[in-house]
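User: Sequence in, structure out. Go.
Assistant: Echoing your sequence, followed by the structure tokens.
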Amino acid sequence: MPRPDKSARPLDMANPCLHGRKRRCGRPTSHDTEELDQYLLEIAAGLFVQHGYAGTSIDQIARKASASKQTLYRRYPSKEALFVAVIMDLTGSLLQAMAEISLKDPLEELRKISRMKLEFTLRPEALGIYRILISDGHRHPSLLRQVVEAIGEPFHNAFIRLLRAAEQQGQIEPGHADDTTAHLLTGMITGWPKDNCLCGETTLETSEERQAYFEHAWAFFLRAVGGKPRSPEPQPV
């Protein structure tokens, strides 16, 4: 039986029905708490994307989630903190992948992270977040700074780390393991697709289209930095 759509059902915060039945009396379990946290983040993400940062209030989020403002403020001291938590939740798989990168084959790791970033950038909810940062970021500089520190810097630092390891292992030519190369790679992989989508154009709709675009961009990048992918290790006879 398919699991119920948790984003479509309200929660009675006095008696949370996280699994379609009233929770037992007493303190909530860690599982209940985690599921409620995820539910609140999904509600907040939907409202932020729909109405923008300035057009979304804690009151709206609480009403949509059938929660009290105190429930939200116990978890997030401000709307900014909640917005950053929404972004961290959306990018969780990418941040986890970056935390687990191996330097055994840095050029291949850089390729995988770049491909994941393209997929993430074109997700509707990610595009919604980009639109918010473009429209509201200049009004809320501290919000923009927090997002850059939480997401932008980890991405950039991971790219730099992998470029330096690739240079040390002779996978790219000397002189390319720097900020400029990392920025150019990011722009090459996500710049045009993201800009087109933000302007309402239909771009790289299918997985096949995204893969073909990525392979072309990655090949161009390898030629620019003198990339030498690691040769496959010989298989034992």
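User: And one key feature?
Assistant: The chain has ten helices and no strands.
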